[in-house]
Structures are given as C-alpha cells and as structure tokens.
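LOG
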Amino acid sequence: MKRIHSFAAIAAAALGLAGCWSQPSLKTDTITESGNYVLYEGGKDSLTTEITLEIPTGGLKTEQLERMRENLTAAVLGERYRSSDVSKAISEFKEAITGQYRKDNLELLKDFGYMNGIDGMENSEGAPMLSWENIIVGHFMPQYGNMCSYVVYEYNFTGGAHGTDNETGLVFDLTTGELLYEEDIFKDGFEEEMAKALTAHLKDSFENADDYEMLFVKEIAPNGNFYITDKGVTYLYGRYEIGPYVIGLTRVTVPWAEIVDLVQ
C-alpha cells in the first residue's frame, strides 16, 4: 500500500496552486491497431479487433515511465502481457484472442454444418453468431497534481442479442509509475461516508430521469472502479451492476469539497 498523497497536496492542486512545487508533466502518444481475422480460409465468419491506446512517452524519468507502461499494459490487456513495449503487448494480445476465437468456434461451426470436417473447410454463408468483435480504447484524463487517471472502454460481441461493454478507471502516481487504489488515496473507513456522497449525486448523473427510476438500487457504494480529476472522484458502474442494460454505463462524480475529511 503506497500512501504517498496527503490531503494538503490534493487540496492545493484543486485550488490551482499546483505550480508551487515541481511536478512531472506527462507526455503521451496514441497507438491504434485493428484487423479482421477470418475463422477459416475462404469463410465469411471473422473476428474484428480494434485497439486504441494512449500511452505515456515522456515527461517522467525513464524508470518511472517504463514502470507506468508496464502497469498500463498489464491492467488493460492482462498480466501476461505486462511490457513497457506496448506495441508488442498489443500484437501478442491480438494473436492470443484470435487463436482463442478460432479454437472456440471451429468445432461449433462444423456442428452447425457450415463446414465439411472430412474433406476440408468449405465456403459457406457464415453464421452471424460467429462473427465477433473486440474493441478496446484507453485514454488519459487531465493530470491532477502528481496523479493522472486513465479510462479504458472495452466492447465485446460474441454472438447473441447484443454485445457487452465496460469502463474501467485507473489512477497512476506520476512520481513512481505505480497504480494507486482507494486505500492509497482515502482514509481507513472511508466507505460509509463515500457511499452517502455517491448516493446523493446518483440522480444527477442521469440526463433522463426515467433512467434513474429504472435502477435496481438507489443507494450505492464505492466499488473500487474510479478515476480522479480536478472536479473530484468519479466512480464507474457497469451495465447490470446497479440498473438494467438499457441505462448503459453509469458515472457518478463527488466533488473534492464534499470529501475533504476522507482523503489522506
């Protein structure tokens, strides 16, 4: 647990006094890789992938920069892809999910009668439930003091009525390149008061009042999925987590001024 940020530092940043001490200034670039990979040669079914990641490229010391890239790729693509070479990690990730897509579906496609499993793979009209999609988009939020948040959106379609999507927040310590968690930023026992603040702002998070009325629960709690900006702490809730699929992803922001006593 890395409790390195005092409330004094956070409050100073919120008041626009960040220039009073030396802070790293993150520089970034964006990598985009996409492709369409057929289930079998000559077939119509395929996996479509698109990965767009904003990555840190400068503004930090070399060690911190490499650690940050490693932590980012591990958090976004999976621990097995931990690497400071993000392009390499993306390529390995795409190769793995394409291989899994083919492994999962070739036998199923044969069972459906779309392919001749004896003489080889025959062309077919394809099966809609076997044309899959994987989309990952990650980007940085504006820097806040010595911290910078990163938001990852992922969409997956693996057949069925509709795809699934999710949004994940990451918070980086720019002085170390490490990820920060709730226990690194907030005091012990913060959950109860944070839950009250989140619940108070829940209704305001919806443009459509009818969406709020459809929620499964209207008293929410911190779930570990959050990002921070100068406006406050924003918690992210997925589809079905607090409401039906139709309301989409929910973001609830609590201003810093309301949680001063909860921050270390």
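LOG (cont.) second protein
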Amino acid sequence: MKFYGLQKLTLLDYPEKTACTLFTGGCNFRCPFCHNALLVTDIDNSCTYSEEEILEFLSKRKGLLDGVCITGGEPLMHRDIAEFIKKVKDMGYRVKLDTNGTFPERLKELLENKLVDYVAMDIKNSKEKYAETAGTENISLSDIEKSINLLKSADIDYEFRTTVVRELHTEEDIRKIAEWLCGAKKYFLQNFEDSGNLIGENMSAVPKEILEQMKNSAKAFVENTQIRGV
C-alpha cells in the first residue's frame, strides 16, 4: 500500500490510546465540508510513504505506541488493506479504522478476521439528504446500512459520528440519523471546522445551542450521544 500522510503521534484520534495516524489517498465521496481535500481531489504523489517505510517506522515505535489509526480518504477503497493491517496486528498494535461504510464486504472481512479493534464510521446525513451531503449520487444506502448493522453486532468497540454543518443539517436530520442508528453504542456530533482546504465553499459551523438541541434529540434513540470537540 501507499500512504499520503503520517502523523507520528496522536492522543486524540484513538480514544484512550497513544497512536499514530496513517492517511490513505482517494475517496468515493466528495463531501463539500471534507477537510482532507488534498487526499481526495488533488492527490500529491510526490509526498508518499511506502508500506515498507510505514512498517519500519512502526517497528521502531514498539512499546511507545499502543495503536495505529488508519484514515483517509476512504481506506476500504484499497483492496490490499486487510493484508497490510494483518502485518500491523502481527507487530502487536491495536488498529482503529475510519470509514464511510460503503464497502461492507471489506469491513466484514476485517471484523471476521479480528483485524480491527475500533471502527469509527461517518454517517453523513439522513437518508433523504445523503447524496447531497456526500457530494455524489453514486451511493448505495443499502451498503451503508449493512455496515451499520455489522458494527452494531460486532464484538469490538465502535462509534458512529456526524460532522454537523449549518448549511446541510437540521435538528430533524440529526433525529432521523439517530433513529436509523437506534441501539448503537455511541454516537458523536462534531461541529464543522474550516480547515481552509475544503472541497466545497460557504460551509459554516452550527451555533453551540443548536448543537446541544441536536444532541438531545438524538439521545431519544442513541442514549450515549455526545458532542465532540466542545
């Protein structure tokens, strides 16, 4: 595999773990609020890490890092992701995966082979507004629903999360998402932040009091709904 970014230390990306974060390139979504646009629409092939370089780095960090976070882009786009993760697991690391849930068969393979310890799945919006929010009509809500159900029945830690954008989400949307996720372990709302490197334009954060109202609406279906980053 090839990677397009390496954060050598993070205390935030993997809950309660000291980890590094690996960034894969490419995504099948074009979310206008995406803060990793350079990993999606304008991939820089001049600054990459080979699989061998990453494994050498991890070998040197044994005993210092607990885990490895794999994010993107969309990591499950890559056919060799399972093979790479197995090498990481064989080194004794815990693995956290970020995904948009559109590759349920690859997610199932990782879960069945115990190759991931924590999965964070992004839920972009209510079903009616999913395509608009993901920036593409080429979406299978059935695949997303399969991934949701896989995680809800999995024997690992997981979370669902939504980046809330003033121009894209209403309180009713968040309520519908939570109803879709009913019974899930954890659901996080994270307010939009402008990284200056977006795919779209004119995106803004939701006022904190509105975010609080959204959280309260979601808690009717996912009791453990929290606001992250406030």
